[in-house]
Amino acid sequence: MLGIGIDIGGTNTKLVVMNRSGKLLAQDRFKTEADKGPRHFLRRLGAAVEGLRRDYGRQLVSIGMGAAGDVDPERGVLRFAPNLKWRDVGLTRPLEKLTRLPCFMENDANMAAWGAYELELKRRYENVLALTLGTGIGSGMILAGKLYHGATGSAGEAGHVKVEPGGRPCGCGGRGCLEAYCGSRAILARARELIKDESAFVRKYAASDRERFNTICLTNAAAAGHAAARRVWEETGRRLGEGLAGLILVLNPDCVVLTGGVSRARKWFLPAMMKVLGKQQIKTPFEKVKIRISDDADLGSHGAALFGLEKALK
Ligand SMILES: [Zn+2]
Questions:
Q1: Contact call for residues 179 and 160 (beta carbons, < 8 A)
Q2: Distance (Å, rounded) from C-alpha 36 to C-alpha 8?
Q3: CA 218 to ligand 1 center in whole angstroms
């Protein structure tokens, strides 16, 4: 029995076929082209799913989807996706009609959390918090072995927890959010304040000629001993520690999994983050919690495939 996993991103939509033990059998992707509207998107998604059905036919039993934004998992509606600029788009029903497969949709960080729970941790822990560190910051929680939704399906908006009252402006319209300090866009904005000559910096630290000013560049600079780059990562770690400490105090997880592009700079932000966690007054949850980093860049689509199977076969 196989499941299709779909990750709807701002730029690309990824599809995978996976079996229940997490073996990846096929993958595909297409440009999301959100500006052409949901109907255009659904047509292309339907075609991509059909392509996978031709190869795997009756072995396929479910479709799981993750999308960045506010998702209503009950109705399969993407209520608000700022990066796609869509509101109230129903995705699971039309896809079910088209494919006759049971279809489930969740927030993308929830699917990454499920992927971490099944693939990275092999269900060894019952209480898992996953943080997705990319342009934005998302989170998902597995509590007592179940994906936690909250009252409206919106649980896990960790990126918009305030870490600095009245602080830096955030993409959500608020100020002082964790994402406004530790999202990749915010990290680069802070780096630009400290690094005087950006083009010389990129020439020196970019991995290739085509690279721009990005977090990889900033990581390379830190590795080469660049003081400002190291300072930016250290500040990032401190803020992340402050945000994470609050979440750990509330949830008391067995394990926290960090994933997403920014987590690749672990060597440079993790020491400052761990220092903040080590200084908390209520010691027990911090002594117990394991901090893991996942390098699976497709944890969202992999988690979605496994979550779809879990729901369909329950
Ligand atoms: Zn915010």
A1: yes
A2: 15
A3: 23
Length of the chain as a residue count: 314
Task: Tell me the domains of the chain and their CATH numbers.
Answer: 2-117+298-313 (3.30.420.40), 123-293 (3.30.420.40)
pLDDT tens column, 52-87 = 999 998 999 999 999 988 999 999 999 988 888 899
Write b or e for each residue in 277-305: b if 16 or more Cβ atoms lie within 10 A of its Cβ, otherwise e: beebeeeebbeebebbebebebbbbbbbb
Ligand 1 centroid to residue 178 C-alpha, Å: 7
How many whole angstroms separate alpha carbon 215 and alpha carbon 187? 8
Q: Which residues of the chain have pLDDT under 50?
A: none
**Integer Cα distance of 130 and 136 in angstroms:** 14
Exposure letters 121-154 (e unless 16+ CB within 10 A, then b): beeebebbbbbbbbbbbbbbbbeeeebbbeeebe
Output the pTM of the full model.
0.94
Give ion ligand 1 contacts, CB < 5 A. 160, 170, 172, 174, 177
Determine the distance separating the centroid of ligand 1 and the alpha carbon of 9, expressed in angstroms: 19
Largest CA distance in the chain: 59
Pull the structure tokens for residue 77.
Answer: 């509606």
State the distance between the two ends of the chain, measured CA to CA, in whole angstroms. 13
- 3-state SS, residue 307: helix
In this structure, what token pair is assigned to residue 162? 């305030």
**Ligand 1 center–CA 149 separation, angstroms:** 20
